[in-house]
Amino acid sequence: MQLKASYLEKREQAANTEPGLQEVKLRRYVNLLGTTSFGGSSLTGEGELTYSPRDSLINDCNCPDWPKIMRVGISSRWQGFRYGANLKSIEKGFVSTADATIGQARDEGHFWGEYNLGPFNIRGTVGESWEELIDFNRLRVTKAAATAIKLNRSLWGGTFASSYGLVEQGPRLNQDLTVITNTLSGFYRPFNVLSFGPSFGIKEEWDANTGMRTEIPTTEFSFVYTPFKNELRFMGGTSFTRTFNNYGLSDVRTLGTRAIVDWKLGKFLGRNDTLSFNLNYNRQRDGISSGNSYDDLSGILQLKIADF
How far is CA 17 from the centre of its chain? Predict the structure, then answer.
């Protein structure tokens, strides 16, 4: 059995604050990850638990003070085929490191399988999630299927991924969505210590009841630089996303940049510890409602403790 623990602090300035009022928040995360194998077989198990304080900006959230994410999974191998299943439970009020707030409690599960064909790797996933809509006393059920084809060569590679989802909220809400996402990404490695590449994607949402179609194109460029035998790693990137629909009710542009430094400490508290610092900047501009425009700068300091 292997155990890994990490503690993370994220310092961020709250968006939409009045001029002269610089509200700074410090968000903490505690993560525990355990993996084990079962008696000489190819079957392995994994469990993960993450705690974070709830979003303090949400009033009357009726959330636990430290909402959590729990995940368990199993996987196995048969010749060149790998397969497995995962279950995840997310409590209401949890805020991810990407600042995504979980407004309702959600449970999800999926099955996956992948197969290697020389330089190609093919992966497929089917799953379902259940989200409790307390105000309407019903569940939002999302059914999804996804596939990805990856090509990996010594100097270059790429991935094409596609997913299809159906979001059902019941006849009372009169809102069922079809969601299709396609992403194409690539990388080039001119030197052993440097790799970089672009990514292009588009997400389409279609409401069968209203006819509203929302499109979310995204483009991104990222790089990884490891100058000292993987002991120190620099990562960075920038992305641009636009959200708009055919009724002209939405027009949001988001520009994001990030810089990450990972330093392998070696034997510190565990046997393979890493200190990581992340700096993120996001600039959002809403062409319909200026009140939704903001600039957000956040930093994350994370200590990963592995192999006690």
Answer: 26
pLDDT digits 0-9 by tens, 129-175: 998 876 667 788 999 999 999 999 989 999 999 999 999 876 666 67
Provide the H-helix boundaries in 229-300: none
Average model confidence (pLDDT) across the chain: 85
- What's the CA dihedral at 34, 39, 40, 45 to 10 degrees? -30
Beta bridge partners of 202: 182, 217
pTM score, two decimals?
A: 0.79
Which candidate, 144, 238, 137, places its Cα nearest to that of 197?
Answer: 238
- Is 65 inside a domain boundary? yes
The helix, strand and coil proportions of the chain, stated in percent and rounded to the nearest 5, come to 0, 70, 30
**Largest distance between two CA atoms of the chain:** 62
- Report the C-alpha gap between 67 and 6 in whole angstroms: 17
Higher pLDDT, 75 or 100: 75
Structural domain of residue 65, as residue ranges? 1-103
pLDDT the model gives residue 29: 83
Q: Is residue 13 part of a domain?
A: yes
- Angle, alpha carbons 187-158-256 (nearest 5°): 55
Q: What are 159's two structure tokens? A: 């991935």
Residue 154 vs residues 51, 161, 188, 189, 190: alpha-carbon distances, Å: 39, 21, 9, 8, 10
Is residue 81 domain-resident?
Answer: yes
- Number of domains observed in the structure of the chain: 1
Cα 127 from chain centroid (whole Å): 16
| CA neighbours closer than 13 Å in the CB half-sphere of residue 38 | 10
Only one residue has tokens 């940049």, namely 257
State how far the Cα of 111 lies from the Cα of 130, in Å rounded to an integer: 15
